[in-house]
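debug: dumping io for the single-chain case to check the tokenizer round-trip. Nothing else runs in this session.
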Amino acid sequence: MGMDLYAGTLTRYYAHNWKTISQQWAEEHGYGFQRVSSTGDALGEETVSPEDVQRGMETWRDWLLKALSQPGQVPFAVWEEDNERPYFTDKPDWDAFGALLLVAACHIYGDPVPETVAKGWDFWDHPLIRRMGEDRSRGWSLFRGVEWWLPLSETILFEAPRPGGDKGAIASVSLLRWELEQINQLVWQAEEETVLDWSHTEGYPTDGWIDGAGQVTMGETHRGYRTESLAKFAYSVFYRAVKFAEENRVPILMDY
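debug: decoded output
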């Protein structure tokens, strides 16, 4: 299952009122496209009205912010929920996300960066990535299985039930911004214009295609991906998502 990054309101996300970058491309070129859930089930028409979805998201948001508040602390700022505000999406996919984690971990622990990574590699099992995930002195959301970042100014990471009832690690967009800044400082020291360009100039080899399920498939000549290029591509996508989320005060979610 491929991985997309979405930055927008929770209402649009749960009302399925958004299209992945693969879906947009397929529709622009006249191809059929069927989105599926993480369990492999096709996503059909939404049976709950957008108004009901919005009320549900607002209820969850208000409950969460109240639960996070501490006595004597300034209340957390509420972000707005609706089904019309613009959204951002792109597809770093898992291999590039793993390459970003690997490049960061190698620089943090002083190990050389491998030249390539294999297609479909199990990056969570890599010793350095595991080490970062277990390093409690750092607590980086990117290495702790976080899939949601909320538009909060505080740099926090916590576990809580999400609207669907599943419990997971959640962090703030400000923490993700800080982590990306740390990676750039450690690895590239790149200017923003260069970082933004990486989503177009770096990444997966060009002799490939995206199938109907949104999976990236490469040509026979590519048996491995260039680690540094994939990492730059993923970094650019995450940076763009953070920039959009900060400007519009919306959450960022991994979708797969």
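debug: round-trip ok. The first strand starts at residue 4 and ends at 7.
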